[in-house]
Specification:
Elements (H helix, E strand, L loop, with lengths): L1 E5 L3 H12 L3 E5 L3 H8 L10 H10 L3 E4 L11 E4 L14 H13 L4 E5 L7 H16 L5 E5 L9 H6 L4 E4 L3 H11 L9 E4 L1 H32 L3 H9 L20 H14 L5 H13 L2 H9 L8 E5 L14 H11 L3 E5 L4 H8 L4 E2 L3 H5 L4 E4 L11 H7 L4 E4 L6 H6 L3 E3 L14
Parallel strand pairs: 1-2, 1-4, 2-3, 4-5, 5-6, 7-8, 9-10, 9-12, 10-11, 12-13, 13-14
Length: 447
């Protein structure tokens, strides 16, 4: 079976590489010539643990190739996975222009039966538009070639995408024919030997599942951030609250961590798109509107705490930031809280020094040299007036507190991810401001 993956972004590249790893003949297609050249030479345009090694191994084995032309490979292809971008329009709806362009290209060039699988996150009803686009091209050609459309949403966590794909907890496939069912089952059989299921649904339900899953996770995050802010106000500790409610089997412990908001390529975009879908169909998704509002407000929380600490005067303050990516183990900065914080700090007259293990190049691409980029954590907080923990990379979990207290102008940490121990902060004389609990002020000191 020959498989084409259209789009070599995060989803497409992981999908193509992992499918080739189990033996499929895969060609990845992208219109970006420079990206394709990089991939053909064994380079990896995104940071994802384990991906580059898998990619190179399968290129050497001849199972994974790259091209800029879908037309050149479509004749021999059995399955086309469409993994192109669906960026949000100004109204929050998903831009389907790239998805539909793939469908038109398939319709213009296909020579035999194939399955066109939408891997991108798309609104309910997209499969119908994809089918119409393919059929329009076939009618224009005056040919009658059978084809199937399927929906196969991805559930990959950035930073652990290889594990998620190779050992999934579930695979969702929406089909409307037995032929498509059998083909998709054959593709995914190597990945469900762990006993986890392939869940076959109708196509509309499959499209809805992805949005609903991301919206639910985003809701849990915003809910806990709202509760965290209340905990601070009443003197409770959100970490203790989390443990208490997480022990309830009906709730569970995952995605109950308070912080400074979610970012990335999925949650913000998908929440917006689901809200828009609701409005198009006469359903006001009020909970999700609140989820989005809470998240945007939470991204500026560390700035508000910092401003309050310095009584509103941040002019000339040197602020150290640890972490730029929206989460650990990725260089992705889409919708990252760090970008909001940097913008607020610069507008307040601060000098920002930042360090991230992998996202510095991406940050520089986005905002240039408006901040100072450092080589490690110690360099970042030297001579700083305050330290903001923004991304919970593992190397930030244990800081050299002696160096910190000696080199900072004032030892104060604003912890956006609650990774530090309150008692250690107190013992080292550090002013410590977590999320969702009272600050730690060393003895004989005051705010």
């Amino acid at each position: 079976m020959k498989i084409a993956i259209v789009g070599t972004g995060y989803v497409g590249l992981v999908t193509g590489t992992c499918l080739s790893e189990v033996g499929f003949d895969v060609v990845c297609v992208d219109i970006n010539e420079q990206k394709i050249k990089t991939l053909q030479n064994g380079g990896c345009p995104i940071y994802e643990p384990g991906l580059e090694d898998l990619l190179r191994n399968n290129i050497r084995a001849g199972r994974l190739t790259f091209t800029t032309s879908l037309e050149s490979v479509i004749a021999d292809t059995d399955v086309v996975f469409s993994a192109v971008g669906t960026p949000p329009d100004e109204d929050g709806s998903a831009d389907l222009s790239y998805v539909l362009e793939v469908a038109h290209t398939v319709g213009r060039t296909m020579q035999k039966h194939l399955v066109l699988v939408t891997k991108s996150t798309v609104p309910v009803g997209t499969a119908r538009k994809v089918r119409e686009a393919v059929q329009e091209e076939l009618d224009r050609r005056g040919v009658d070639i059978p084809f199937d459309v399927a929906s196969n949403p991805e559930f990959l966590k950035e930073g652990d995408a290889i594990g998620d794909f190779m050992r999934p907890d579930r695979i969702v496939v929406g089909v409307d024919s037995q032929r498509a069912h059998d083909i998709m089952e054959r593709i995914y059989k190597p990945f469900v030997l762990n006993g986890h299921p392939i869940i076959f649904t109708d196509i509309c339900s499959a499209e809805m599942i992805k949005y609903t899953a991301n919206a639910m996770l985003a809701t849990r995050i915003s809910f806990m951030n709202d509760i965290a802010n209340l905990c601070e106000a009443v003197g409770a500790d959100v970490s203790m609250v989390r443990r208490g409610i997480g022990a309830d089997s009906r709730i569970g412990s995952k995605f109950l961590y308070a912080g400074i908001g979610y970012g990335g390529s999925c949650f913000p975009k998908d929440v917006k798109a689901l809200i828009h879908t609701g409005e198009e169909n006469g359903c006001s998704l009020d909970i999700l509107k609140s989820v989005e509002s809470i998240n945007e407000r939470q991204k500026s929380l560390l700035f508000r705490k910092l401003k309050e600490y310095y009584h509103g005067d941040l002019q000339g303050k040197v602020i150290a930031m640890l972490g730029l990516a929206f989460k650990p183990n990725t260089d992705d900065m889409r919708e990252a809280p760090a970008l909001v914080l940097i913008d607020l700090l610069l507008k307040a007259g601060c000098h920002v020094r930042a360090y991230d293990p992998v996202a510095i190049c991406e940050c520089r691409r986005r905002i240039g040299d408006s901040i100072t980029y450092c080589n490690n954590a110690t360099e970042t907080f030297a001579d700083a007036d305050a330290l903001l923990l923004v991304t919970e990379w593992s190397e930030f979990r244990v800081l050299d507190y002696d160096k910190l207290t000696q080199s900072m102008k004032q030892a104060v940490i604003f912890d956006g991810r609650n990774i530090y121990n309150r008692e250690e902060m107190r013992q080292h004389g550090i002013h410590y401001f977590p999320i969702g609990s009272s600050p730690v002020i060393p003895k004989n000191q005051s705010l």
